[in-house]
Amino acid sequence: MQHALAAPFYDIRGIFNQTLLKLFSWSSKGKYYMLSATEAIWDSSNTELFNSKSSTESRFREVVELQSTDIFRIKWKILSERLLQNSEYMCYLVFKFSEKCSGLHCPVMVQDLNQRRNKQTRIVYFRTPQTWNMSGDDNQGPKEREDGWMEVNLWKFKTDPNYGCIPINLKLATYEGSMSGLVVCGLEFRPM
Prior knowledge:
Helix content is 11%, strand content 42%.
C-alpha cells in the first residue's frame, strides 16, 4: 500500500526541479541565469506604476505590466557563484507588449546607477527603429526569441570572483511618452 503523501511529495519535487531548471541553466556557451520581473522590478507598495499578473506564456508564474510611468528601476543582487567566473555577461530584458501598449516608439535611456560618476548611458529601443535613427551599436534594438517573447540588451558586465555578488541598479527612462503596456517577463544573463 502506498503512503498517502507519496504522490503529492513527488509532484512538489518535480515542480521544484522544473523551477530550478528554468532559473539556473547551462547553454552551449556556459551558465546563464534568469530572474523574474517580480523579483527585479516589482514594487508592491506602488501599484500605480506596476501591475503583477499571472501568465501561462512565461517561464514564471507572474509577469509585471507597467502602468502609466516613463521611468522604472531594476534593482537586485546576483550571487557570483550562479555565473561563470571571470566572464563577460550581457543582461537582457525579456518583454512583450500588451494590447493597450501604444508607446515606446522613442529611444529609452538605460543608466547604471552603480556607476554614477561615469554618467554614461545606453540607448535601447523596444520597437525596431528606423536605421537612420540608431547610433553605431547594433545591440540597441529588440530581437524576437524562440519562446515568442522579445528581448533587448540593457547592460554588459564582467564577473569577479573577489566579490560575492553582482549588484544591479539600472534606471530606464523614455525620451518621450509612457511605458504603459510594457509586459516584463524578467531578466536573462548570458555569457558573451
